[in-house]
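Field notebook, page 252. I keep forgetting to write these up properly, so this time I am using the form the group agreed on. The chain and the ligand, adenosine-5'-triphosphate, are recorded exactly as supplied. Prediction of the bound pose follows.
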Amino acid sequence: MTALLHCRDVQHRFGALEVLRGVQLAVTVGERHALIGPNGAGKSTLLKLIAGEERPSGGSIHYRGQDITRYPAYRRARIGIGRGFQHSTLLESLSAGQNVALALTGGRLLARQGDCRRLAEVDVALGSVGLRDMAPVPVAAMSYSQRRRLEIAVALAARPQLLLLDEPAAGMSGEERGTLVELLRAVPPTVTVVFVEHDLDVVFDVATRVSVLHLGAVLLTGTGQEVRRSREVQEAYLGGRREEVPGVPRGA
Ligand SMILES: Nc1ncnc2c1ncn2[C@@H]1O[C@H](COP(=O)(O)OP(=O)(O)OP(=O)(O)O)[C@@H](O)[C@H]1O
């Protein structure tokens, strides 16, 4: 199947620091593709390169068969690449509904009365992340978990075909992570998701495929089960601590 997103030999350096040394990554339509790997492996950098926030030092990035390596971020957003952030980009003084409305309208606030179709879309977007009742509530009054879910609603409101999420479960409690897993599973299959995540329970509950980044390259791409069972991944990512990988019994 043709890849929706294809990173070919992508390299990136920050000054003398070589972060990515030739990443090969192919993501097909409808995947929930997790990027995992040790701290500093270059996962967030790879997301930034895909979103167009950084320009790769080498290699190329293709989206729907188009070479987008030189496209700026706004042009990638226009062709369907959406981004959720590791740190909040919500407007604190506005309500949850207004934040979603801004994303829907590309920066315009809705009039108090009227624009019913848009208001209905805001309602649907908030409902999809379990926040329908929070429409009038200012972001400043929302809990951390509610904000993280709102960020996903805001990212989805722009109707991306490819949604990039950086550590969506960061800072969440066990219960909140459960809600997030349900939410990510409920993202429509027309939206392909590539996400960076450290929480392996979330990764293996959500991802249809997983790529392990190590030393600036993809060590392995496979199903959750293939990744869990890979001795190479155990050694590179978990220092051989096999028992820490969910689903793999000690001594397996
Ligand atoms: N803007 C930057 N300037 C210089 N170095 C950077 C910059 N951004 C990231 N780095 C460095 O690049 C390396 C990879 O960082 P990156 O954030 O991509 O890793 P990561 O795999 O996402 O790590 P983590 O899991 O800890 O978030 C790290 O050594 C980091 O310090």
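OBSERVATIONS:
- The pocket of adenosine-5'-triphosphate is lined by residues 14, 17, 19, 37, 39-45 (CB under 6 Å).
- The longest helix spans residues 144-157.
FOLLOW-UP: compare against the apo run.
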